[in-house]
Amino acid sequence: MAKASKLALLQEMLESAESSIKSAKQVLIDLGAKKTDLSEKYEKSAKDLTTADSPEGKIIEGVFNGQDMIGPDKKNYPVPANYASKSKLVPGDVLKLTILDDGSFIYKQIGPAERKTVVGILTQEDGQFKVMADAKAYKVLLASVTYFRAEVGDKVTLIVPAADDSDWGAIENVLPRTEDEDDADLNKF
What we know:
The protein has 5 helices and 11 strands; from the N terminus they run H-H-E-E-E-E-H-E-E-E-E-E-H-E-E-H.
């Protein structure tokens, strides 16, 4: 079998497997199974945090879920992707939000979650960047990808929560390519 036809067959098999997995997940949801996100845990953790007024403005503590901060009132507060990327926030981190009188939001990380580092390959699926590491796909923020000038196929180090099976991670760095990897890329063409 020619190399091109083997690649086409492999691509077709992967698409079929992805379709089957998506269908199976939808059946689970339809049967009432809970999604595998940690929102409930973060809401419970945030419930015990504080909200207060100060001379600077309103202060709200909350838990980062990968994209937003969940406050004690169960509301989602948008965390700027650039701040989350630069600060390498991971789900479970405790943040303090100060809402100034002029409506400005100022975030500060006050309680980092326990972390671990994994190494994986950057991919993109349905417009969402992900890192495949330890047989799992972790979502990452676009701001992290652009900040590190990462490209699909790059090997990256990723920071993830140590205790939770999170869907999100924070890119720590892009690993330099070796000569062997560069040669393999050139041989694809």
